[in-house]
Amino acid sequence: MIRGDNADARLLILGDGPLRHDLLTLVDRLGLADVVFLAGSRVNPFPLIRSCGCFVMSSNHEGQPMVLLEAMALEKPIIATDIDGN
């Protein structure tokens, strides 16, 4: 949907986990390798978050996610799932 409105849109995914390989396979299968970037885990995510136009928190469950507070500190527009903690 976003790419339909903005052909320059890119998706940067920070973090790692057991589904990384599955996600890479999906990105490749959908032909999105040129617009989806998996940056892995970062000790300091601030430079990457700062470079983004908005921050998306798509978790199914969270406590109080520090990264959400970091995005707020960087004054990024936030799109988040409607769950406790977000």
From TrEMBL:
Coiled coil: none annotated. SUPFAM superfamilies: UDP-Glycosyltransferase/glycogen phosphorylase. GO terms for molecular function: glycosyltransferase activity. The keyword GTP-binding does not apply. Keywords: Glycosyltransferase, Transferase. PANTHER family: D-INOSITOL 3-PHOSPHATE GLYCOSYLTRANSFERASE, GLYCOSYLTRANSFERASE. This is Glycos_transf_1. The lineage of its organism: Bacteria, Pseudomonadati, Pseudomonadota, Betaproteobacteria, Neisseriales.
